[in-house]
């Protein structure tokens, strides 16, 4: 290649950005002594040029390279000390992927030549050049996507109903979608997908990780993959495996967002900034390790060659360093400004809020997001735990954040399935978990209420399996939690027994009703409204197959109708407003007597009612009835409303939630076993 003109260029923005004369290149590394831009042929196997960036501004190495155009493949080499005991692992023999890459080329394989350290002597760098097989970045142009009249739906928190889903698993087996689009961003944007989501009534899609990721070496050895995608290597790149191939993954993702927005649906991304795909940095120097290991990762202060592993994934990204913090902030803004997403769910968010002493709600990232005019208006959801000391932080994130509430999950499972917990505990979770969130001006919408998420049993499996069945994962059923609080209703797994199926149906509907009617933000896991099963696998992160793909041919039409009815009821009536209700609710045990302190703590009684005098969107009082016992109860209606009549809006004992019951205060309601009922009062 003819020598390209090189100028000092600018230290901002980071990454490679083209202009009329070429491209500006800016790379962060606080500890490298030299950064080189390496250009490759169209096949990505032959290095055609190596250009040292000529200037440095603080921790940014930069230069302007004339003649570079969109489509050019490139990588980076970083020189500096090879001193693992000080945290430095620079090895210019290893090509590094640009952390700011907008497109990635190549398929990563766990080859020995990717190792940064010599296999026989880790005190020395491995001398083999890995460029031919390393991942490369592709320079992209400045062409703008035609967003048209796209506008963020901006669904209020009180109206939000989250639908957690995997892009591929959602549409892979939906025959209403053309085969070439199934399992892709385009498949999710297809009218058949949108029609289902609108019929269901959800407002906000939370997509499992869609950033470019690679499969762990251990999984590859087992012939498996990281299906869930929690192993990011490209924080600015939509995963190529989720694209149909019709255009670039970036534009296919944008078209998906545009179509979903047009239907009034929000898009929230599950993002993994707590660790990267480099694991412990032993088997492969892919990007961050080779560019500046000591800045990007948290290292043991007493032994910097060892990574602090608060994530369980081999490394923890160090958000205390300004360079790493900037990477995360730039990535978040990119997805909002250029890709139009509406918010983020932060995986293992406690790891992102760690300072030198532990988890701190005033941590740098949380403060940076709070003051950022682009990010502060998005939905922010924390998975409020990690594996480090004091990592369980449920209820402790700052105002402006919502949190996955696993206390809701476990207490509701225990109440409905195991006869655990009192009516007092149930009511506490039903009414926003004030014990966790009523502080510092936080509202009930701080609680993301769920019984099922991607991580664990599906709803159908929760009532069909007493134990996990993860043999397909290759770990002899040792992986995945054993504390599922599940039941099998008398038969382990699939059953054709009508009594078993009826019980399973009732329990599923009761838990759906509790989740969707509770105060806070409800979250459903994709497929639960259809009766999706994973065959008892409660940790199918590595199963990219029919175990995880939703089987649309086996749709439970009654369950779908029931769930849609519930969501419509929440939307139209909003039984609980997004405010703490002090003295505005009347609780009764079915005998028209208020529950006293003894009754709240009585573990022997499993039925009660909640009278809501002023629901959010109707002038008519509403009464919610719950019966977790195994027998029907004639429930005496409140004498506080002696005139008028009551109408049943929902009865979860019915497969579709339908009921024709109408009565007055003198007529007890026949509250069937394992059911939830919603009554409305009319004068």
Structural features, described:
With 683 residues, the chain is an alpha+beta fold. It has three domains: 6-138, Immunoglobulins (Immunoglobulin-like, Sandwich); 157-573, Alpha-Beta Barrel (TIM Barrel); 585-682, Golgi alpha-mannosidase II (Immunoglobulin-like). 21% of the residues lie in helices and 21% in strands. It has 16 helices and 32 strands. The strands form eight sheets. An eight-stranded parallel beta barrel has the order 13-14-17-20-21-22-23-24. It has a six-stranded antiparallel β-sheet with strand order 25-26-27-32-29-30, with helices on one face. Strands 1, 2, 3, 6 and 7 form a five-stranded antiparallel β-sheet that branches. A hairpin with a 2-residue loop joins strand 18 and strand 19. Helix 10 packs across helix 11 (423-430), helix 10 packs antiparallel against helix 14 and helix 14 packs parallel to helix 15 (557-573). The radius of gyration is 27 Å and the shape is elongated. The termini are far apart.
